[in-house]
Amino acid sequence: MAEGFASWTAPGAIVRPVLQQGCAGPTGVAPIIQLHPTRLCNLACAHCYTASGPKERQQLPLALLCAVLDDAAALGYRQLAVSGGEPLLYEDLPGLLLHARRLGLLTSLTSNGLLLSPRRWAAIAPLLDRLAISVDGREATHDALRGQPGALARTLHLLAQPRATGTPFGFIFTLTQHNVDELEDVVGLAAAHGAQSVQVHPLTLHGRARDTLLGARPDGQELLAAIVEAQRLAQALQTRSGVRVQVDALSQDQIRAHRDRLVPAWPASALTTLAPVLVLQSDGQVLPLTHELPPALWLGSVHEMTLKALTARWLHSSASRRLVEALERTWQALAEGMAPAAYWYDEVAARARPADPPLTVSVSVPVPLLPSRGLAARGPVLAQGARQ
Question: I need a surface site. Which of 151, 153, 243, 347 has the fewest CB within 10 A?
Answer without folding.
Answer: 153
